[in-house]
Amino acid sequence: MRRIVYLVHTSVDGYIEGPEGEFDWPVMGPELSAYVDEVDEGIGTFLYGRVVWQMMASFWPHAEDLSDDPHVRRFAPRWRAMPKVVVSRSLPDPADGAARVLRGDATALVAALKAEPGKDILLTGGTELASHLAAAGLLDEWVIAVHPVVLGGGRRLFTRQDKRGALDLVESRTVDGRVVVLRYAAA
């Protein structure tokens, strides 16, 4: 069975975007970029909720035209080539076939996705789908990059959970002299 790895950037006060939806505060320095590349090596599918998919799909297909950042240039071809799955009740099917859209019971659909053969699944960012999958016990690993910023509001890392979920700390690492990466596994 494939594992689901949840990779997310958060502020010190636990927000994944600012009060106005800003996501201009995470800094992908060379060490954090290399760490994300390491995580990506074991991944065979990118998984998104609708909101994060729309953000990713508006940037990565033509990212090299928008940025000369080394991380962007290295990751963009990988993003385009990777199979992508979006869980959404309202997203129309992408016209270019860039992603497969799953509609219906997210828990059952993602459990079936995990049961498919292949490499692990990477869920990137977002809070609703991640919170839903965490509550259902479907997340296997959390990779949380804590950036040195206080946003003071916005979208929380996780929505309220009905029960506690124990995690085992697998790794903690400071990268680029400013970001702390915490890696946890389901206990």
Automatic annotation (TrEMBL):
GO MF annotation list: 5-amino-6-(5-phosphoribosylamino)uracil reductase activity
Coiled coil: none
Pfam families: RibD_C
Domain named Bacterial bifunctional deaminase-reductase C-terminal: residues: 5-180
GO biological process, one term: riboflavin biosynthetic process
InterPro entries according to UniProt: DHFR-like_dom_sf, RibDG_C, Riboflavin_Biosynth_HTPR
Superkingdom of source: Bacteria
Name the record gives this protein: Dihydrofolate reductase
